[in-house]
Give the backbone structure.
Amino acid sequence: MLNQNQTPLLDALKACADRSHAPFYTPGHKQGEGISQPLADLLGTKIFRADLTELADLDNLFSPQGVIQAAQQLAAEVFGASQTWFLVNGSTCGIEAAILATCGTGDKIILPRNVHSSAIAGLILSGAIPIFLNPEYDPVLDIAHSITPNAVQSALQQHPDAKAVLIVYPTYYGVCGDLSAIANITHQYNIPLLVDEAHGAHFAFHPELPTPALAAGADLTVQSIHKVLGAMTQASMLHIQGDRIDCDRISKALQLVQSTSPSYLLLASLDAARQQMALHGKMLMSRTLQLANEARTKISQIPGLSLLFVGLGESPGFVTLDETRLTVTVSGLGLTGFEAEEILDEKFAVTAEFASLQHLTFIISLGNTPADIEQLVQSFTTLAKEYRRTNLNVTSSNLQNILTTQGYTLHFSPREAFFAVSETLPLAQTSDRICAEIVCPYPPGIPVLMPGEVITNPVLNYLEQIQGMGGFISGCNDTSFKTLKVVK
């Protein structure tokens, strides 16, 4: 057992920040002496003393032998991994590296169609061929859940030469599928199970939370420590266990997708967040679950509102739910999720994580307070009384329905289409053409179109509807979404 009280990287950074010396190295602001005054007024000056480069005492992220190595070993023990890598380019670079380390050009990888855009980037970078599985879809809730063990079994029977399986666990809504069963099936083919666990870094710290991916049998998992724990934005971790994945390939892949000038502020925040959870994780998660349950109980009593909860629509794609993730269905008020999101934010200073056509989803974490929960409940109480409408004017399907019922045709690999000669056309002229860019509403950043896929009218109509209702379309070159790049 390692001493989890230690924060080797944080301590080294503090010592370097406090040392009096003449700095003739990057960054150019020289520990805050050259920082702009408006930025100093916002953040103070002390933080810039710790904004340092790869000094001898601070180790090297790509070849750690000192304090970074020690901090990663401590994290591996806490999260149940055999080896852990710190990430400063978010979980995005971890997903990309996972695909790069397990798949080469032309190799097949099995993954759900509602993956994050980072997985599509991994396909483009690696040249891998996606074998997409539709996630299980609940037409009543209008929400996609996880892919099922049967779907994975069927895909592997048809594609026994696949090099890896990737699964999202939990989904953006906090839904967890049967990861243990999927791991068992995947391992029967002696290939690794990769998990996008960006929103599940807290699972290891309380028995009432879903089983962590590694404990369920995953070979590799990527966690956004900043999303639900106490690290700074962009700070994440990649963990592996077992021998199905080559550690050297992971390290080399990360060198391709991470900055060669990593932020030590982010790295130190990972060290500190690990210590915080190692020492106080169960207490912090108990308090977080208590706040979430209070919000869930009170909001469920408000007329016109309903919530996603454990036991609602349970299936192989919905085995359990992260109770700290609160999804509120507002369509019973005659409002879209986009409308409700805008009202809550502008009128009541309550900001959701993301909105969809019928729902609002909130992340309740160790940083929330009882006052936050009270404000959330009161805002929904007033919303139901003062902003209710008779009917909800939504006629077309939302993202989950599009992703699970629309037939997708991949004419080129994502890599081939991304680098192909392309042209930009008005939307009306792109139907039946091959897409040359990633197009997704954000959040949650799930691509509706990707390079290599045939563009269809239902998809175009959906994207235009989302934009018309206040959603934001990202990934494409034309941010106004009046044109699209297609393969020429």
In short: The two ends are 59 Å apart (CA to CA).
